[in-house]
Amino acid sequence: MENMDPATQVTLVTIIVAGMGITIGTAVPAIAEGLAAFKALDGIARQPDAAQDLRTTLLIAMALLESTAIYVLLVILILLFANPLINRFF
Amino acid sequence: MENIAPQVVFTLFNIPVRDTVVSTWVVMGLITLIAILIGRRQPVMLEILVDFLTDLISDLMGRPAGPYLPLLGALAIFIAVANIIGIVPFLRSPTSDINTTLALALVVFLSVHFFGIRIKGFSGYLRDLASPIFLLPLELIGQLSRTLSLTLRLFGNTLSAMLIVAIIFSLAPLFVPLPLIAFGIFTGILQAYIFTALAAVYIASGLEVIEPNKEEAKEKRKE
C-alpha cells in the first residue's frame, strides 16, 4: 500500500467504498420498502374497500423511500466517474 | 464522466447546445404533432387521457382539478414521453440531464407558492407558512429539500436505467438488454406518475388553510 502512488491508492479505496456503499445503500431502503408494502398489503387484505387510497399512499411513500437509494447511487456515480479527490494528488 | 455527461452538439451564439436539449425539442415537437393528429382523427382518445388525468389529480389533491390540470397534466405527459424517448437510437432522454429535472422541479417549487398566494392572498399565505412561527426554518428547509429530492429522483432513475442498459449492452449485445429496456420503459412511466403525484401533493399542501383553533373550527362546522 505504501509503495503505490497516491492516485492509485485513492482509486483503490474508491472502488472498495463504491462496492460497500451501493450494497448497504440499496439494502436498507429495500428493507424499508418491503416493510411498507407488507403493511399496505396487510391493510388491503383486511379492508379491500380501502385499496385505492392505500395504493396511492403506498406509491408516494415508496417514491420517498426510493430516493434515499437514488442519493447513494448518485454519490457512487460521482465517486466512480468524476472523483474530485484524485486530481488533488497530481 | 465524459461518457455519461451530455455531449455538446453545436454552439448557437456562443451558447453550447447539448444533445439532451435537442431531444427535448424532439419531444416537444412529437407531443404537439401527436396531439394535433389525434385531435383531428380521434378526439375521443384525448378525452380519455384528460379524464384519466383529471380523476388522478382530483383524487390526490382532494379538490376539483380544474386550475391545476394544465400544469400537472403537462408535467405528466412531458416526463412520460421524455423518459420513453431514450429508447430511440441517437436520442438521449432529456431527463437524464440534471438541468432538465432541476428546471421541472423549480417549476413545481414556484407553482406551489403561486397557487398558494392566489388562493389565500399574500399575507394569508405567509401566515400559514409560519404557523407556529418557530417552525418557519424547518418549513423553509422542507421546501428546498423536496425540490432537491424531486430533481435527484427523476435524474437518478433515468440515468441509472440508461447506464444499466449501456453496461449490459457492452457485455452481451442485442437480445440480453431487451428486458432491461422494457423495465426502463415501465420505470419511466412510473416516475412520470410519481413526479405528478408528488407535485399535486405539494401544491395541495400549499393550499391548505391552517386553522389556529381546531376545536373552535370543528364546532363551527357542526353548527
Description:
The complex is a heterodimer of chains A (90) and B (223). Helix content of chain A is 80%, strand content 0%. By secondary structure, chain A is mainly α. Chain A is rod-shaped. The mean pLDDT of chain A is 86. Chain B has helices at 19-41, 43-61, 69-84, 98-120, 122-129, 136-171, 178-207, 214-222, and strands spanning 8-12, 15-18. Chain B is mainly alpha-helical. In chain B, helix 1 packs across helix 2, helix 3 runs antiparallel to helix 7 and helix 4 (98-120) packs across helix 5 (122-129). Chain B has a two-stranded antiparallel sheet with strand order 1-2. Chain B is 74% helix and 4% strand. Chain B is globular.
pLDDT < 50 runs, ≥5 residues of chain B? none
What is the count of helical runs of chain B? 8
Number of helices of chain A: 2
Strand content of chain B: under 5%
Mean pLDDT of chain A: 86
Cα radius of gyration of chain B in angstroms: 21 Å
Strand content of chain A: under 5%
Mean pLDDT of chain B: 83
Q: Please tally the β strands of chain B and state the result.
A: 2
What percent of residues of chain A adopt helix (DSSP H or I)? over 70%
- Order of SSEs of chain B: EEHHHHHHHH
In short:
The complex is a heterodimer of chains A (90) and B (223). In chain A, 80% of the residues lie in helices and 0% in strands.
Helix and strand topology:
The complex is a heterodimer of chains A (90) and B (223).
Chain A (H helix, E strand, L loop, with lengths): L5 H41 L4 H31 L9
Helix pairs in contact in A: 1-2
Chain B lengths: L7 E5 L2 E4 H23 L1 H19 L7 H16 L13 H23 L1 H8 L6 H36 L6 H30 L6 H9 L1
Antiparallel strand pairs in B: 1-2
Helix pairs in contact in B: 1-2, 1-3, 2-7, 3-7, 4-5, 4-6, 4-7, 6-7
